[in-house]
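tool=predict chain=A
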Amino acid sequence: MSLLAEKTLPDPSLETMPGLWRRSLLAWPDGRRDTTSFVNWLQGPGLYIDLRQPEGRPDFSGMTSLAALSPDAMMWLAAQEGFAGELVEEDGFFEWRRDIDFQPQAIYSDRGRLWNEGDVMVEEGKDIPYIEHWHREPLGETPLWAARLEDRETGQKGAIARMGSLFMFARERYCDTPAGLSLAECVAGATDMARAQEFLDCEISQGAVTSTGWFMQRSTLPFREGKPLLPMLNGGLVETHDMDRTGKPFTRHWEITDMRGEPLVDVPSNGVST
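tool=predict ok
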C-alpha cells in the first residue's frame, strides 16, 4: 500500500481512539525503515501509555535487579522508548503530551496527523517528518479506564490504564537527566554505576489481568516481567508492588490525580481482578 494512498475510512477522533495499537512500520524521508521493533500503544479515555523496544534483546537470565545488569544489557535498555500522558486533538493534529518519558525530554512536541487507509491507521509527523502504520489489536472493550498517579512519598509521576484483560503501567525515574542527551549518552557518561542505574530506573510495563492477579509481561525493566503489579485500593489510594535497585520488594502508595473512564471498582482490596 502506498504511504499516500487515498483515505478509505473517516479520520480517527478522540472518541474512536481507545484501544491497543501495534505499530508495523516507521518510515523516514531518507529511506530508513523500522519494521522489527516491538511497539504497543494503549489508548485509554484521553490518557495513554506507549512502550517501544528494539530488536536484539539480550538474555537477561540471572539479572534480577538494576544492580545486577551487565554494561551491555544497560546499553540495550537505554535504547528503549516509551511515554505516558494525554492525547489531545487541536487544529487537525493529534498531540501525545508526555507526563512520563523513558528518554530525556525531546526538543520537539509529539504531534501528527492521523487518517485511515483500509485497516491501517497512518500517522504523519508534523514537526518531524515520519510515517507510522498502526493496527488495532483485538481486545475486550471493558472495563476501560486510565489514571494519572503521584507517589505519596517521592512525588514521582505514575500512570495506569486498563482495557479488557490488558493493562499498562508507567512510573517516571526519580532523578533528572542532562538536557540535550539521549538516554544512552546519559548512561555511558554517568559518573558511576549507581548513577547509570538511576537513569535507567523508569518503568513502562505491559501486562495481563488474570483471575489470580495482574502480571507484567513486557517491561523497560526486564526483571519486572512475570512479577505481579498487585494494584490494590486502600483508603482512596492505589498501592502497587515494586522493588528497589538491589531487588528488595516494597510497596508504593499512589494518589489518583486524574481518573478517566470507569472507577477502579475492578481492583478489589486483594489486588485480584474479578
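Helices lie at 71-78, 183-188, 193-200. The radius of gyration is 19 Å.
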